[in-house]
Records
---
Amino acid sequence: MAVPDKKPVIATDEFIKGLWRENPVFVQVLGMCPVLAVTNTAMNAIAMGLATSFVMLMSNTLVSTLRNFIPRQVRIATYILIIATFVTIVDYAIEAISLELHKSLGAFISLIVVNCLILGRAEAFASKHTVRIAIVDALGMGVGFTLALLCLGGVREIFGEGALFGIALFPDGFEPWIVMILPSGGFFTLAGWLLLINYMQQRKQRSLAAAEEVTQ
Amino acid sequence: MSVATATPTWPMYRTLVGVGMLCGLLIAITFQGTRPVIERNRAEALQKAVFAVLPSASRSATFLVTPDGDFVPDTDAPGERVYAGFDDSGQLVGVAIETAGMGYADTMTILYGYAPQQEAIVGIRVLTSKETPGLGDKIETDPAFLENFVALDVSLDESGTALRNTIQTVKKGQKTDAWQIDGITGATISSVAIGDMLAASSARWVPAIHAQLDQFKTGDDSGGS
């Protein structure tokens, strides 16, 4: 079942695909609950991105390690158990690091359990690949997810509070667009980013097709 | 697929129990490791909040409220607690009281400081709230609103068992009396909720504390800053 380890090129590609080609948020549009709910500030976005990445990294590692040991009938139950464990660990860790952060992320830390991105990576990737590749995949997806959250959180904080990472960017006269930190602002910002990314990918495809025509 | 041919009972059992035990162990280790830190953080946050609502306090002590209405230095017994603040010379400057009430979104809890000498509320701090960011959460940040709680009158009437006036929230700019709170435009429900919570809580606690002021002066040794 396991794909044999070939060359380091494969590992690099597994990492890069999470950042751009298969970006979990902008391309796969997975894990929308935290993407929309906790990206009201850049700091919250980074914290949620890192927490999700950690859970994904650990669950991918464990699932891949145990992949020949888990009967397929109980695989989903086992994956959920593993994911829930690491989410609980992250929950305690964040509360120990900063009560403020724990307060602002609230229930969304526990909801990482139901982030389909993590279960998706465990089921579709880690259970079929070696530990090394599964770790690289989780790192790529995690960084891609965190960057995507930061894209949303940054834009929303800049317009919604006139600041980035709590540092004021505009002169006093700036009237914050409160809608940007409300839930609807999450949808607007996500729509804007999806529009931009899809436009860029389509343009790239068109130029590739044009290049092929020329060579033919 | 030939899944139905043989259901591997033993491997399924082995996997679920094995993974379950491993996961349980991991959670237990994390819980043990982080609990002291979390408890310390919580205590520090509460301590900070007590000093924020009692600006002239330099040390604090926790008091347990007995069913008879007495205030005794804190033990592990279950029950409500209030936090007394003392100045450098050990004089009681006020008592911080926690109260909860319904805001615009979900229950919120606040801590407020009651200063018996001034017969006033001298500070509030929102401990937990899910009020709308940018609107309702102005109750935590709006300087004009927080100005209301520098000296909010909660004086007792002649009998000493009830407040002379009930705290009420009025529209912004219409505050005329010391027991009124100037509301926030755009956060009407949240600011009215704060007023109602303070009114209900002070009506209960202010007479009770006022009658037992001596009990707080004995608590100098416990607690710390």
Note: Residues 183-215 of chain A form the longest helix (33 residues).
---
Amino acid sequence: MHVHFSKGEAGNLNLFRINTDSLLSFINQFLMFNSSALMLVLKNLSKSYGSVAAVKDINLTISRGEFFCLLGPSGCGKTTILRMIAGFEMPTGGEIILEGKSISHDPPNKRNVNTVFQNYALFPNYNVIDNISYGLKIKKTPQREIDERVSEVIRLVGLEGFEKRLPSRLSGGQQQRVALARALVNRPQILLLDEPLSALDKKISEQTRNELAELQKKVGITFIFVTHNQTEALALANRIAVMKEGRIEQCDEPRMIYEKPVSRFVADFIGSMNFFEGMLLETQVNSGKIELPGLGIVYLNQEGIRTEKSKVTYCLRPERIKLSLIPEAPYENALQGIIRQKDYLGELTKFVVELNNGLMVNVIAQNYMLQQSNEFFDLNEKVNLKWSKTSGELIYV
Amino acid sequence: MFKKIKEQYILMAPPGLWLLIFFIVPLIIVLGYSFSKGNAMGGVEPVFTLRNYWDVFDEMYLFIILRSFWYAFITTVLTLAIAFPMAYYMAFASEKMKMIIMLMIILPFWTNFLIRMYAIMTLLGKSGLINTALMGTGIISEPLLMMNNTFGMYVGFIYWNLPFMVLPIFSSLDRMDLSQLEASMDLGATKNQTFLRITLPYALPGLVAGIIFTFIPTLGNFVIPEFLGGTDNIMIGNVITTQYLKARNWPFGSSLSMVLMFVVMVFISLYIRYFDPSKNKNLVNF
């Protein structure tokens, strides 16, 4: 029995690659029927619990077929937004407009929106088939159609052979697939996913992440994905809304979120970042001169730097900095420091370098590159930190 | 493996021995009595006879047995009707509220059963608290008869059984994940559909336990009909008690007990067979 179980699990890791053309064309037709590109609009959406505001005046437009991600630390209100879209929480202000129709106060069973819950919330007394067909049976779908749609979606998520299993006899990854299938089989206008990968261990979670992205492309349903895991968000989403304390800090494509953070919070939350408090001294065409007190002057060659003098936070990603014993080139900025910590992490080495003014800076180097250039740095060694003048971001204080 | 089995035996020995001495052996003695002959002195003569069983199939006794089943059945239904909403509320209440209700349910157990029965009598009696209050406020002019009749008996039974029904249902529902209710609604079900298809199957093991815990002790109870019931509420438990303690006819009392036990066993095994809590998934299905 156990052998069979683990074999089934391994065999299913390649799911979502199965031919599903018929289902896909059907779903696509279904979605094309209403051709407006704006799927979901959140207008001044707010939610307060007594005097505590969980969600503050959110404005957001999500397009059809988009893989949208709400990202933020716990308690930032991202799950509350998801629950309001699903109908489990009623907004205390603002509107939720789905396909041009306000659904703000409809009960969950009146919305064509389905949810994949964080803990999956499978019905323990029902087997896989009964779980998946639950929604269709409630809607009094003819049995023949139920059978067709359920077996299609089972193929789609790769649960063949597990039809009669109870959820308790499935692995975490398989349970997640059942939850996904149970929602998708209803062909919702929007699929809401509440941290669906957080309960899986790392390997399975990464595997499932890829499968999820592929699945979304195939079915073309709008996905709204809530997570606190930046890697998941960056890998999956078309757009990410980074949230903090009930507000959206930045809403943009993953690349822009990572490379052009608009606030210190976003810069700090996504990836790791070195922050330098400084002063923007002068600006020429596409170039700025920044004074970092106690450290010196750095230059930033970028478009769109403000012209007026102002206090700024200069941000620099650890992987952009190069450790070196050789002086900098004209196109590079440089600072001197002493290596205080060195962590070997397999593919990378993480250095912590103390600058002249005592500031600690993180530097990440590819071990392969270090080996190639035959550069090895020791603790307490004095080094040059160099980086291109095109690297770095300014956040205006 | 061998060692494990050995440990199991050691652990099982004390309760096994206890059951053997205080359950199996007395049962065998009662079984033996039921086939023996009683004498005028109230003693038991070791003579084999089926006479006692023949006497059970008297119209009067059969009627009392049937009536006892009826009372137990009605009691179970009424208790369930009160207990289920209680357990449901409790399971979904806050942790603090859960503790308070739990305490309220368990607290009466700290008082002697008979004292609680007398307390109920002071409530329901002709010049009891309820009647005094109702007459004092002029709502009624004559005292209501709430005791020494079927009504009083049911009040007693429900009061006595309530915790045994509430607690198992509560413990079933308490394990339920609220997100399952949300999932059901999310998939298009109304509140009623969610209750029938998700909540009820979840509560079923507790429900079955509660029904058994209520039905069987009620069936054999003799104290509550005595205290709160009327003269026409005699149950089979009362008859058995009378045979043992007053009529001093132990063999006949024993045969009544054996018949009752046999009927209960048939009933329970049928019940378990068709409502097996471990296979409840098919009971409330589409």
Note: Chain A has two domains: 2-259, 272-396.
